[in-house]
Write a sequence for this structure.
């Protein structure tokens, strides 16, 4: 009988796995990041297929979003031009339609931490993707990629707006699922470096 070498995963669930099984899993991965097959912890830096020409511009206003009226507003403006899909997309060489989107956060401690995490997600090409638009049904559109944004300053959750008592918890989990941890030191260090 042969004995299999067992290794322990560090940094996540600390599970024990067979080395050969883990090697097979690693060999099957196609990105710069690897997800633990047991607890979904992400090792490395996950990147997405968001078009490269996108812009993320942040503006601040004194008037707050509904539910945070005294704190000011952070407005995030995203824009993408029309273009051609690259090799990382479902239909390389096929044209896609760009988009312009605005999103809002309260200008407070939580809002600024989420903003920093969203900026990291944008830099890693994780906020948007190319696919079928949920609203129009059209294919080959720049669409949201699973990180919810508040697109209205008021109207509540039914209108994708504020107030929303659980938004920060939900967006934190959505970012975590993409390997971005709200308030993590690497995001804060990057922010401090860019401010110098």
């Amino acid at each position: 009988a042969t004995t299999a070498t067992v290794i322990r995963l560090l940094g996540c669930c600390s599970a024990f796995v067979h080395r050969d099984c883990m090697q097979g899993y690693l060999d099957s991965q196609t990105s710069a990041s690897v997800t633990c097959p047991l607890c979904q912890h992400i090792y490395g830096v996950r990147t997405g297929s968001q078009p490269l020409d996108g812009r993320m511009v942040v503006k601040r206003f004194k008037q707050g979003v509904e539910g945070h009226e005294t704190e000011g507003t952070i407005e995030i403006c995203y824009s993408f031009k029309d273009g051609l899909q690259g090799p990382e997309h479902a239909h390389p060489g096929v044209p896609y339609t760009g988009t312009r989107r605005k999103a809002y956060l309260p200008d407070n401690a939580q809002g600024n931490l989420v903003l920093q995490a969203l900026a990291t997600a944008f830099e890693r090409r994780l906020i948007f993707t190319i696919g079928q638009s949920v609203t129009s049904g059209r294919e080959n559109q720049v669409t949201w990629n699973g990180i919810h944004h508040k697109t209205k300053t008021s109207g509540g959750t039914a209108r994708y707006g504020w107030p929303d008592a659980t938004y920060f918890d939900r967006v934190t989990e959505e970012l975590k699922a993409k390997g971005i941890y709200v308030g993590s030191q690497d995001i804060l260090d990057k922010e401090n470096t860019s401010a110098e």
